[in-house]
Design brief:
Oligomer: single chain
Order of helices and strands: EEEHEEEE
Radius of gyration: 12 Å
Strand content: over 45%
Number of strands: 7
């Protein structure tokens, strides 16, 4: 699957963006830096996600993305 993810923080605000460039749905399990793990995130495009410890698990339909933010 063609997937990409990145995370950014700026003055206490944090964002993670995850892309699924494949046509098929995918569930990703991604490690998180400790500073990103202990936050309450909001999804902006309705995709299912969870954070457990320092691990993000997210399910994305084909050709989609999600933006997660916390402040």
């Amino acid at each position: 699957a063609m997937t990409f993810a990145y995370a950014r923080s700026h003055f206490g605000n944090q964002a993670m963006v995850v892309f699924n460039k494949d046509r098929n749905p995918v569930t990703l399990t991604l490690p998180l830096p400790a500073r990103f793990a202990a936050k309450n995130y909001q999804n902006h495009f309705g995709n299912t996600f969870s954070i457990s410890g320092e691990t993000l698990t997210i399910t994305l339909p084909g050709s989609s993305f999600e933006v997660l933010t916390a402040n």
